[in-house]
Amino acid sequence: MSLHEKFNQQFYQNPTWIKLLIPLSYVYSVIIFFKFFLYFNGILKIKKVSVPVIIIGNITVGGTGKTSLLIAIASYFLKIGLKPGIVSRGYKSSNINAREVASDSKSIDVGDEPLMIKKNLGLPVFVGKKRFSTAELLLKNYPEVDIILSDDGLQHLELARDYEIVVVDQARGFGNNYLLPAGPLREPIRRLSSVNAIVINGGKKSNKNSFNMKYNAGDKIRSVLDNNKFIKIDQLKNTQLFAATGIGNPESFFSLLKDSGLIFDRLIFDDHHNFSSDDFKDCGNKMIIMTEKDSVRCLHLKNKNIWYLPITTIVDKKLFTDIKNNIGL
Hints:
The chain is an alpha/beta fold. It has helices spanning about 5-15, 20-40, 65-80, 105-110, 110-120, 130-140, 250-260, 290-295, 315-325, and strands spanning about 55, 85-90, 100, 125, 145-150, 165-170, 195-200, 210-215, 220-225, 230, 240-245, 265-270, 290, 305-310, 310-315.
């Protein structure tokens, strides 16, 4: 685990020394205020595309489950006859220009989350640094798209939005409640009062505009090299395994494995870590289990011992109703 990730963990342990960074958090809050001031007073322009836009983001650094929620919402839209498209930054991708994600794209080129979305849904997925120009390019190439979902993008104010969702991890919450760099907050907690919905990952709703979601682990793991090849979880309960993660909140994944009755050694890497063969050189011929998001960063390794655990996201159906009511579907 890198120094950066170890530092981020301090936000949730709240050691005394981190309070020395609070003055820098005040500077950061001024920058945030100034950015909002520029956009909402028309000095910087908020730009609207021709279809409704839903933003799914968070106000903390690290993983909260927003991509899993996006997949669930997009799947619902498909079921009711809509034609959604997806835009994303493509975090840690090697190219900042707006471009389309293909099923055979490399995660290092387009980012792991957009590639996972593409493989799951087969929908138009575009990535780029600027959300508005990325959404415009998507609509130019796929004029039949009638709604856009943005994976992250809450803080990218240039793209006008019709519905905002903030995902909160129940277990970690907002850490020590400080803004960066003294805490994990990208925006003040009061930002929650201005969004349309708060989705609590792993918890229960707390007010009228909050909704719950949770993960259910599948009963089998699938091969990274051959998605049609699987092993049932029950066959692995007496097997010593490795569990590898390069996600923002590895404990959520480890808990799912524990609940499935598996025994494993942990391999923890940085969020969005680009895996190499050296990362698993001490694993021998033991099976390595990871998340689906991690698995798309291992396709190039050709390692037959790497498997992923499919996870289903269960979302409060009232959220879908609220979205439809608010954007006029």
